């Protein structure tokens, strides 16, 4: 592809030294598979209370098999007061009645297996709920007590800010000590220097591995160690942190790696299981340390997720992500429960569809977020409907993440669109009526059909085997790469006019080609 209309495929412009994982050599499922994130509250409600649950997930496994995913990742379903919708856990070894029971969980695991789908759970080790028995004991115990030493209690707070807004310290009562919470006040941070905190995580890992889960996603994997003495944040204080290169003392402390080695040590005793970490660390060299051979199997890099729809930046991000992963498989994702849906973030359905073909063509593993495959846009919810703690804690300046958490429209009419027979926990807009899974299954041009076809090709076509990529010359605002050692070429046009396609047979495009066979703006193509 070149601006002057010629095709030019000989020019490889990047060193192809991006070996993928010994892991792929062993053929581990998690090194190449596609994982589908189920935000359980919003996926399918079986009992009409308006909140998705485990029986709901079970009832939709046929859909996930039809879609073609290899595994699903369940957002937290443990007992929780729900201040951060399950990311505030009061017992990490049980199921909240809102979502079902341990029996429902075991049933889901068994059913999923029958559908050929693996199950990953979401562990939240950085903090507990303030209703966890440990924190309740800490509150009723005295300053300096062993009960308080599992958390971070101090008579004077430092200047740290919470990720959700406002100070990272609260008091359990006036006159009492302050405790640290990097997220909501209902999410006190655990003290990772405390041996019981580590032992409890091992116990939790064994509990779920013994039940048969195939892996764990580690929430806030970059937070599981705090600096000695909790020194002040020397970056510009305030909620909007200016990045001037001064390290953030709240995250990415060296001590965190000891915890990841501990997690790996437990998982290594369960063949085939894996850990994927949420690692929000800007410096790529520091990020890489999390996926050393004795730490996490995989980590989210988030480069692609945060990248604007612009070919040059996408290309740089892909290079950076692959380089950072080193010998671990790269993890590609363009959506999750913390960011606006791709359609909204990129500004159009066309762009979201094009980016899906990029993420799914790259070597490594891909993570989808429920609703992404339906091309759902974010919902602009009224203030009164907002539930994300970010909204309140930011003092109403950040509307939070509810817009991407509106339930999945399955079929039929509102208000529940097959998600619930009751009232959905977040209101579903009328526009979702045209985007139901049932409608899209029937329509060969739908976004769901695009994802199904893409996943099928990715699984079955031999061109998807190459573990490295090389770049081709491409017109301005375009990119094209090939999976080395195979024939797969993926091309993307982020410009505003059609460009010629590279040679090859077209396998799939995110939109129709132009009449003379060119790749239109906001479109991606797979060729072989
Ligand atoms: C992670 C989760 C996010 C949650 C936070 C606190 O970033 O993805 O949803 O609010 O951790 O647990
Ligand atoms: Mg329910």
TrEMBL record:
Keywords: Hydrolase
Pfam families listed in its UniProt record: Alpha-amylase (PF00128)
The UniProt record lists the keyword NADP: no
One GO molecular-function entry: hydrolase activity
Keyword Nucleus assigned: no
Domain Glycosyl hydrolase family 13 catalytic: 37-405
UniProt family annotation: Belongs to the glycosyl hydrolase 13 family.
Name the UniProt record assigns to this protein: Glycoside hydrolase family 13 protein
